[in-house]
Amino acid sequence: MFDALIDGLFLVLQWKAFSLMMVGMALGFMVGLLPGIGGAATLALMLPFIFKMAPVEAFAFLLGMHAVAATTGDITSVLFGVPGEGLSAALVVDGHPMAKRGEAGRALGAALTSSLVGALIGAVTLALAIPVVRPLVLTFGSPELFMLSVLGISCITSLSGLGARGQIRGFAMGLLGLLLSTIGQERQSGMLRFDMGLMYLWDGLDLVPVLVGIFAIPEIVDLAVRGTAIAGERKKENLQAGVIDGVKDTFRHFWLVFRCSAIGVWVGIMPGAGGGVAQWMSYAHAVQSAKDAKDREGFGKGDIRGVLGPGAANNSKEGGELIPTVAFGVPGSGAMAILLGAFMIMGLVPGPDMLTKHLTVTYSMVWTLVIANIIAVLLCLTILNQLAKVTHVRGALIIPFVLFLVFVGSYTSNGQIFDLIVTFLFGLLGYLMVLLGWPRPPLVLGFVLGKLIETYLFISVSRYGFAWLSHPVVVILIILTAIVIAYPFIQERRARSRRSGDA
Amino acid sequence: MRSGRILFSLIVIAVAGYAVHTASGWTFKAKLFPLTVAIPLIALAVVQIVVDLFAKAETERGPAVELDFAADVPFAVARGRVIGIFLWILGFIVLVYLLGFPVAVPLFILSYLSFQSGVGWLTSVALTAAAWIFFYGLFQRLLHLRFEDGLIQTFLGL
Asked: B70 lies in a domain?
């Protein structure tokens, strides 16, 4: 096994594989910066180019591109408040307020370093887990996955409002997100739901126009209202010092970064859950790690922990997603499903063969993830000075370019004018929500998880009746969900009794 | 703020009510999840309205985990700018619908820079050209993304 590990490294370092990885990285770098165009879409576009490549070269090219797209997506999230990828949306919540405060360098330094740490943890987990992961994945059936999704939504809703009233709005928006996810054809019966006679809605609302609209448009409106640069009238920060602060923050909160990376890996392993869920769950975990309600108040206003958590999970999930893809041929996400296509093109069959006959190829994937992430982060940290200067350019100059990228990004999801209309409508909704104090993250997570939750619920009920509620893992997850919902109330109660004790 | 929030709750109730009304005629499989979600949503929105109407005003600054809009711009100015930017966005969508992305992008950027940003013509043209080269080079040449023709080109058979 050790020999295969070393051989895998040398295979990636061969000039042809390495050069192709660099080409893939260059493409991933550009695509990651563009709002809305995700790594998955680029993987699909680049698939035809691998036919003449050897397996190691093909995976170096594809995985290099995919890994870098996830990293650079963080940059637009922080600088413009526009998710570079659907998956980077959670990073907007605290990363962009930091940029507005003139701390773009620090936020980017933290996001990129935590991404690197996350990627390394994900890759190490992939290397170690391959032989032992099978029983782990098999413990999670539909009932457990259903409860895991419910736990994810509970986490973010219970954290999204200050006080009991805020929680009402948080849970309402989570439910609204779930309701929006039911638009389109129902998977079991094939019935069309809430399609309003539009063929566009048959497949349901696409994630990209919804996410980009709800997060990017309110930021653009705010920039237009303020009439200043993104960083306002603040003096330019000492970026290098800021970046170094961000790097230090990663190690100052290393235990949090480690935990969030672990969440990313775990969610990545779970088939179908996807990177967006990993980011939001680790964001929720970062918020929940705050000592008390007061400590939590800074989240959403530019707390560095809100950047570190999603940053770490964003890249650690890559390693996690590869585990079921390589070991069982069960893709963990849309991007991995496309990668599975690459396996077929290369004539490789995911499963036992990848752990025996083609173990070197499998380890070359691990090394590609490690090397691509290290190069990408070092490159980003080197050019951050130039990138973060954008936050000091007059907003009126930036707005048309960001709008053009936002709408082109949305349009690429289906190639229809309706994509733009959905982006606009969700932009309007997002603006009203922020204005009136309704939280957006629960709505987004509900929307992301809705289809999965419905499917898992249906399978659980059809297969087990109500007996699934007594599965041991389900019971544990139900208890955890109850704790998550009750936790803010307990915190508030404790703070109140402490205050009355002090008085 | 309070009346705005009540109005928002009423819209949420209307949306969820429509969902319940529509779903009630579907098969059990199809309606199970929408009803499970929409009914509690109506209940929560009603509770929120009651709270907004009868409880004391909230002391918290607003939702945690959310962004803060600029508060230092006079209300009338802010309202004008909000309407303005939404009109620009709508205008861009209409342009794309009529002319397609390849024509709408340069036209929109040039118009915005010239009329809204107050940038000189020469700079506007230079920036627009740069944006168009980026658009053409990356999206059309490198990524081979397909952009539909606009209504006008289709109508004229261009």
From this structure: no
> Which chain A positions have a beta carbon within 8 Å of B61's beta carbon?
162, 297
Same domain membership, residue B89 and residue B24:
no
Same domain, B83 and B149: yes
Residue B64 domain flag: no
- Cβ separation of A191 and B30 shorter than 8 Å? yes
Q: What was the pLDDT predicted at B70?
A: 66
Statement: residue A224 has pLDDT above 50: yes
B23-65 pLDDT, tens digit each: 998 988 888 889 989 999 999 999 999 988 887 665 554 444 4
Structure confidence by residue, pLDDT tens digits, B103-152: 999 999 999 999 988 888 899 999 999 999 988 887 787 767 788 888 99
A vs B: CB pairs below 8 A:
230
| Residue B63: predicted pLDDT | 46
Is some CB atom of chain B closer than 8 A to the CB atom of A412? yes
**Does residue A502 register a pLDDT over 70?**
no
**What is the least distance, in Å, from the CA of A371 to any CA of chain B?**
25
Model pTM? 0.74
Domain membership of residue B142 (yes or no) is yes
Which three-class secondary structure state does DSSP give residue B146?
Answer: coil
Among the partner residues A161, A171, A178, nearest to B63 by beta-carbon distance: A161
Q: Is the pLDDT of residue A178 over 60?
A: yes
Mean pLDDT of the residues in chain B = 86
Q: How many domains does chain B have?
A: 2
The answer to whether the Cβ–Cβ distance between B65 and A441 falls below 8 Å is yes
CA dist B79 and B47 (Å) reads 30
Instruction: Quote the CA–CA distance of A92 and A219 in Å, as a whole number.
Output: 10
> Domain range holding B87?
77-156
DSSP state of A184: E
Is the same domain home to B83 and B50? no
Domain spans of chain A?
Answer: 2-502
Tell me which residue in B26, B33, B90 faces A457 most closely, judged by beta carbons.
B33
The 3-class secondary structure across B16-72, one letter per residue, is HHHHHHHHCCCCHHHHHHHHHHHHHHHHHHHHHHHHHHHCCCCCCCCCCCCCCCCCC
Cα–Cα dist A71/A108, whole Å? 10
Of B109, B138, B147, the CB nearest to A30: B138
What ipTM was reported for this prediction? 0.92
**Same-domain pairing of B87 and B136:** yes
Say whether A160 and B138 touch across the interface (CB within 8 A): no
Residue B72 within any structural domain of the chain:
no
Instruction: Give yes or no: residues B94 and B143 share one domain.
Output: yes
Same domain, B81 and B47: no
Query: CB of A305 within 8 A of CB of A285?
Result: no
Q: Are residues B100 and B40 in the same domain?
A: no
Q: Reduced to 3 states, what is the DSSP secondary structure of residue A229?
A: strand
